[in-house]
């Protein structure tokens, strides 16, 4: 297959992290996935297309950094000294952190297209794309802009409640309609271990969606409520693997 | 909208903080008085949770000469959501902004709401098409204000601050902030832990900084999620829970805010 043009030419694999539901841990899991891949010696780019709620700069503790221009476009922010993990987010373009991005669809689409094609990603083993909840402009814009990279993988995140699972079923339908290859479903916050009595209290369990008829796909092991929810710093959780009981089986 | 006395938007910059859960229980709480007419409008077009939370999955919307009829859970509690228009619960609504805006306009214009005391509008996370459209289409009809829902951790608060900026930009009054999932009491050992620690002071500090009322804090009770999955009111299922007390106190504060800000033409002093 021909390489993608321009700034996408060096990108080998693309993984979109999706969920129909908000607050299930897409950004946390995107960050953890990127850090784990980097830990495994890969070069990783992380693209945050959640324009209204860009969480990744703060999660990776680079919220005070700025984005610079080069002849090929924007230079992404490098999270580490070795420059093996880079991040692009609208969070870096805001004058003030509390500034709201109050844009309608067409303007959001234009920026996402720029984030994909006008960022000097360089050679990457993986580009992990964190998305907002839903199945709308941002998702369609990201998929359209990334198509030249070849088959796009999707990791769908849910929590056990039926209310999350309902939205995720819709997201799986979206993935099928736009031709995304579903790598698997992650059931996040899958139980909580009380730090006082070390017991996991009962929880509402709608159950992760059974694959629609005719689909076969791997089910990623459930991830118990990860430390990253408590530390607000995914880097800490990734660095403590594989020592903790919460280490998900990536 | 002329027959609707009070309109409340439930917002958050952040997803998954409990907007829909809160909207549903605000509606349940207000409708417990059978003389209060309440409606709940779900404008989360891509992720319509309200039908499930209200136990109305599978219901269909009907047309009449005066427009669409909301689905009635009780005589005094009606609900409208795009979820009622989907032929299957797995159907994805893959719409761009303009089509979503059109649907929201229809919901606000073509639904026969009847005489209502409260219309509660549940929104998706963010500050985009759905929010702009709701504010724009309701602009002429006086919105009482917005209730913002957050959880204690900074990753939520940073998005909620943006939502507050949005409200100020579009001149939407803010009724106050609800801090949800504020502490977890283990049902076994009864000790409290923080699943989402307020590392930057939580909603309390944010509200002090931005001079906005903190309406209350709702602790995380695992029974809330179970009630939502079953489509039952948590206020009825777990009347003894500290979360129920917190909800009721917050609902009362919202009632008081609306009573102090009557719709145009109404008097503050009851006759």
TrEMBL record, chain A:
One of its GO terms (molecular function) is metal ion binding. Keywords: 4Fe-4S, ATP-binding, Cytoplasm, Iron, Iron-sulfur, Metal-binding, Nucleotide-binding. It comes from the Eukaryota. Gene3D superfamilies: P-loop containing nucleotide triphosphate hydrolases. The keyword Membrane does not apply. HAMAP family: Mrp_NBP35. Component of the cytosolic iron-sulfur (Fe/S) protein assembly (CIA) machinery. Required for maturation of extramitochondrial Fe-S proteins. The NUBP1-NUBP2 heterotetramer forms a Fe-S scaffold complex, mediating the de novo assembly of an Fe-S cluster and its transfer to target apoproteins. Negatively regulates cilium formation and structure. This is NUBP iron-sulfur cluster assembly factor 2, cytosolic.
UniProtKB/TrEMBL annotation, chain B:
SUPFAM superfamilies: P-loop containing nucleoside triphosphate hydrolases (SSF52540). PROSITE patterns: MRP. One of its GO terms (biological process) is negative regulation of centrosome duplication. It holds the Pfam family ParA. Its main location: cytoplasm. GO terms for molecular function: 4 iron, 4 sulfur cluster binding; ATP binding; ATP-dependent FeS chaperone activity; metal ion binding. Keywords: 4Fe-4S, ATP-binding, Cytoplasm, Iron, Iron-sulfur, Metal-binding, Nucleotide-binding. Component of the cytosolic iron-sulfur (Fe/S) protein assembly (CIA) machinery. Required for maturation of extramitochondrial Fe-S proteins. The NUBP1-NUBP2 heterotetramer forms a Fe-S scaffold complex, mediating the de novo assembly of an Fe-S cluster and its transfer to target apoproteins. Implicated in the regulation of centrosome duplication. Negatively regulates cilium formation and structure. This is NUBP iron-sulfur cluster assembly factor 1, cytosolic. The gene is NUBP1.
């Amino acid at each position: 297959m021909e390489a993608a043009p321009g700034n996408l030419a060096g990108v080998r694999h693309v993984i979109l992290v999706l969920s129909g539901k908000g607050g299930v841990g897409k950004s946390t899991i995107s960050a953890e996935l990127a850090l784990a891949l980097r830990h495994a010696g890969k070069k990783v780019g992380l693209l945050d297309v959640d324009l209204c709620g860009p969480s990744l700069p703060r999660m990776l503790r680079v919220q005070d950094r700025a984005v610079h221009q080069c002849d090929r476009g924007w230079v992404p922010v490098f999270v580490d000294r070795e420059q093996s993990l880079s991040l692009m987010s609208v969070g870096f373009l805001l004058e003030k952190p509390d500034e709201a991005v109050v844009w309608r669809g067409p303007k959001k689409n234009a920026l996402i297209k720029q984030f994909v094609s006008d960022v000097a990603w360089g050679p990457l083993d993986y580009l992990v794309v964190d998305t907002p909840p839903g199945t709308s402009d941002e998702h369609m814009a990201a998929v359209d802009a990334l198509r030249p990279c070849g088959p796009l993988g999707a990791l769908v995140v849910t929590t056990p409640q039926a209310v999350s699972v309902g939205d995720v079923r819709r997201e799986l339908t979206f993935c099928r309609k736009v031709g995304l290859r579903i790598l698997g479903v992650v059931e996040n916050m899958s139980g909580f271990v009380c730090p006082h009595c070390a017991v996991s209290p009962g929880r509402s369990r709608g159950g992760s969606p059974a694959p629609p008829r005719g689909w076969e796909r791997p089910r990623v092991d459930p991830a118990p409520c990860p430390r990253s929810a408590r530390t607000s710093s995914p880097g800490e959780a990734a660095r403590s693997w594989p020592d903790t009981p919460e280490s998900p089986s990536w | 909208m002329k027959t609707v006395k009070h309109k409340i938007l439930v917002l958050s910059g952040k997803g998954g903080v409990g907007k829909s859960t809160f909207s549903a229980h605000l509606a349940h709480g207000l409708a417990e008085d059978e003389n209060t007419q309440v409606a709940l409008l779900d404008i989360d077009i891509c992720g319509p949770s309200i039908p499930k939370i209200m136990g109305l999955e599978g219901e269909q919307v009907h047309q009449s000469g005066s427009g669409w009829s909301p689905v009635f859970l009780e005589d005094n509690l009606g609900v409208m959501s795009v979820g009622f228009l989907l032929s299957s619960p797995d159907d994805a609504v893959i719409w761009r902004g303009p089509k979503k805006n059109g649907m929201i306009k229809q919901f606000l214009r073509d639904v026969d709401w009847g005489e209502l005391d409260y219309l509660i509008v549940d929104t998706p996370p963010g500050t985009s098409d759905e929010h702009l459209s709701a504010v724009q289409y309701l602009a002429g009809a006086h919105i009482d204000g917005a209730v913002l829902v957050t959880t204690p951790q900074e990753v939520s608060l940073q998005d909620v601050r943006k939502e507050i900026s949005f409200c100020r930009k579009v001149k939407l009054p803010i009724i106050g902030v609800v801090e949800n999932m504020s502490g977890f009491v283990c049902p076994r050992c009864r000790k409290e832990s923080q699943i989402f620690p307020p590392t930057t002071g939580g909603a309390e500090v944010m509200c002090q900084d931005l001079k906005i009322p903190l309406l209350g804090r709702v602790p995380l009770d695992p029974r809330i999620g179970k009630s939502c999955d079953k489509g039952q009111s948590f206020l009825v299922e777990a009347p003894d829970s500290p979360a129920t007390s917190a909800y009721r106190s917050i609902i009362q504060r919202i009632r008081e805010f609306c009573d102090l800000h009557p719709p145009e033409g109404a008097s503050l002093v009851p006759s």
